[in-house]
Structures are given as structure tokens and as C-alpha cells.
Design goal:
The protein is an alpha+beta fold. The protein contains 12 helices and 16 strands. Strands 1-2-3-4-5-15-6 form a 7-stranded mixed β-sheet, sandwiched between helices. Strands 8-10-11-12-13-7-14 form a 7-stranded mixed β-sheet. A two-stranded parallel ribbon has the order 9-16.
């Protein structure tokens, strides 16, 4: 049973990721989005047996300034059974070779697995080292979307249920928009960015997100009152999982609770699609005791969002984080210093970046 290295088409890769219930960051759609609007390139590297993909990774590459090479990055991947050490070693060896051909100074891997001592030991055994720099949020809240709508509401805290009812009583309407509605959503995004010091993409990026993932995997939900849009979000879904990816809220009529209206509609959308969980995508990376003790008086980073997200009754889930394999130790050391300085500056200005 020979295992072969292949570079599948985007369509073949997408079918595999969907069959494996992989993360949206490993999809062909994400490759198209990142490489069509940013300074990224991609490569699909997979293991195939009897004509079927059995493991693989979407590897993204980004050029460093001043010609110092590239960074190779695997977001929420590879898509593999980590318990199969032989396959994992074979795939990583091929990824190493591909990254070196691209003059990568390091490979950054962010597995889509829960944090555990066993997983950390396995990654260390594969020659990876825990990174101080995660690109995706390491901790999040997963909301259970199984059962009836009443079951989902019952799992929320009382405040969230009350605010959802308030939005309904105060005539907030929600709708699933299309790319024609992106302009309105983006105007609210700009307001959110200015108010909460959140970095945002350009309007075309959100347009392309909705267009590329399409109606089968993405939705734009807007909340309005008397025709005036007050808030919105973009959510994605793949197999049993859905994700809250981008959100925006106006400064107007916040007492109508439009943010709760759009999240409730997103939860209903995820349930109707057959998803088992809805990922609220990012909270401060701290243990639950610290989160509960500090969220009411902290507003830096993602702290301001934690109180909102926790109200929907989910469970905290922490991934194993980011792991690096440096290929050029000298440039890698300089990269770490530059990264630390950039994050220090962002934290000093209380800036949170979005996907």
C-alpha cells in the first residue's frame, strides 16, 4: 500500500477537507481568498493512497521584507490523524522540503487540536517548538447548537435571552444579505474599528469572502430598524461546525440590542445547516478563573468581547497553539524580535486585529 506525495487540485482538496470536517482555514476557499487579496501564495501538499487523499495541508507562504525569504504557515492544520505518527512524519518531511524550496526561514503550524500535554509532547517530538506568536486566536468559546431553538436559548445566560427578546420587541429585523449588502456592512465595520480600535480589511476583502465561500458555506446577517442597518456579521459553516468570523455594530440605537439579534440569527442558521457547534472565534487566552475575575473591568485586546461572547452559554476551548520549525536560526531570531515589538506596540495602543 504505497503512499504517494501529490499536489491536488483545489476542487479535489476541497472535497477531502469537507469529508474530514476540517477547519475552514484549510479549505480551497481560504486559499483563494488569501492569495487573491494579499501578499500570500499557497501550495497543497497531500498524501494519497489508492487514488484517495488520506492526509495533507494547505500551506500559505508570505514574503518577508527586504528579501529575507518567506514564512510558511499552516493555519489550523494539517488535516491528518495525528495519532498516525508515520503519516505525520512523512507529510511534515515533504512540507519541510517544499518550504525550503520557497526559501522559508520557518514553518509555523497551528494544529486544529485541543491543548494537552500529550499533543505538546508529540509536536516537540516532531522537532517543532512552541511559538510565542499565534496568528489565530488560541482560545475561543464553542456554543452547542444541537436540539431545538428553545434548547439553545436555555443554555444561554438570562441576560442574553433578555436582550434577544428586547431586540424582537423593539422591532429589530434581521436579514441574510448578499454581496450587494457588503457596502452597508463595511460602513458599520469602519465605525466599529474607530470605536473599538480593531484593525479591519478593505471592503473588497469582505466582498470576496462572501463571494468565494458562497451561499453553501457563508452568510452575511444584518440587523436593522426601519431600514437602517445597525449591526452585522459574516459567519462560515463547514460540516458540523460554524464560525463567527467578522462582526460590526453601529453607535446608533444600541439599546435595541442589534448585536444579540444577529448572533441569535447566526445560531439559528448554524442549527438549520445541521452544525453541532458555533465557534465565537476568539477570547483572551487565559484560564476561566482569570477570565471571570477580570472581564468586567478590562477592555484591552479581546477582553471587551469576552463578556458578550460568554453570555451565549458556550464552553471555553483552547487549541494547542502555534508551533515553529525554524530553518534559518539567525533570521528566525530577528523575526521573533520584530514580532515581539509589533505586538508590544499593538497592545500599547490596544489594537486587536481581525482575520
Amino acid at each position: 500500500m504505497t503512499v504517494e506525495i501529490v499536489h491536488p487540485s483545489l476542487e479535489h482538496w476541497q472535497s477531502f477537507v469537507e469529508a474530514q470536517s476540517g477547519n475552514f482555514l484549510q479549505t480551497a476557499y481560504w486559499a483563494k481568498l488569501k492569495c487573491g487579496s494579499n501578499d500570500w501564495d499557497y501550495e497543497l501538499i497531500a498524501l494519497e493512497q489508492h487514488g484517495q487523499i488520506i492526509a495533507g495541508a494547505l500551506v500559505l507562504y508570505r514574503q518577508l521584507p527586504l528579501g529575507f525569504g518567506t514564512i510558511a504557515y499552516i493555519p489550523r492544520g494539517p488535516v491528518i490523524d495525528w495519532r498516525n505518527e508515520g503519516l505525520t512524519m512523512k507529510l511534515l518531511a515533504e512540507i519541510d522540503a517544499a518550504a525550503r524550496r520557497r526559501q522559508a526561514i520557518l514553518l509555523k503550524v497551528e494544529p486544529d487540536t485541543e491543548d494537552s500535554s500529550a499533543m505538546r509532547e508529540q509536536l516537540s517530538g516532531l522537532g517543532l517548538r512552541a511559538s510565542m506568536h499565534t496568528i489565530q486566536p488560541q482560545s475561543t468559546i464553542l456554543v452547542d447548537t444541537t436540539g431545538t431553538e428553545e434548547d439553545i436559548l436555555a443554555r444561554m445566560n438570562q441576560g442574553a435571552r433578555r436582550k434577544i427578546r428586547t431586540a424582537e420587541k423593539r422591532d429589530v429585523e434581521t436579514r441574510h444579505g448578499n454581496t450587494d449588502d457588503i457596502a452597508s456592512f463595511f460602513e458599520i465595520m469602519k465605525i466599529t474599528s474607530q470605536r473599538d480600535k480593531i484593525g479591519i480589511r478593505n471592503q473588497e476583502y469582505y466582498h470576496r469572502t462572501l463571494d468565494i465561500f458562497g451561499p453553501n458555506h457563508a452568510t452575511l446577517i444584518l440587523a436593522s430598524h426601519q431600514g437602517h442597518d445597525l449591526g452585522g456579521l459574516i459567519a462560515l459553516a463547514l460540516g458540523p461546525r460554524a464560525w463567527y468570523l467578522y462582526g460590526a455594530s453601529s453607535n446608533d440605537e444600541r439599546e435595541r440590542m442589534p448585536n444579540y439579534a444577529v448572533q441569535w440569527e447566526a445560531l439559528r442558521w448554524a442549527r438549520e445547516r445541521g452544525c453541532n457547534e458555533y465557534d465565537l472565534w476568539g477570547i483572551p487566552d487565559a484560564d476561566e478563573k482569570t477570565l471571570e475575575a477580570q472581564f468586567q473591568h478590562r477592555r484591552d485586546g479581546m477582553w471587551g468581547l469576552y463578556g458578550f461572547k460568554r453570555s451565549f452559554g458556550g464552553r471555553i476551548w483552547r487549541t494547542v497553539g502555534a508551533w515553529d520549525r525554524p530553518y534559518n536560526l539567525l533570521i528566525y531570531a530577528a523575526y521573533q524580535i520584530a514580532t515581539k515589538m509589533r505586538y508590544w506596540w499593538q497592545n500599547r495602543r490596544h489594537i486587536t486585529t481581525t482575520q
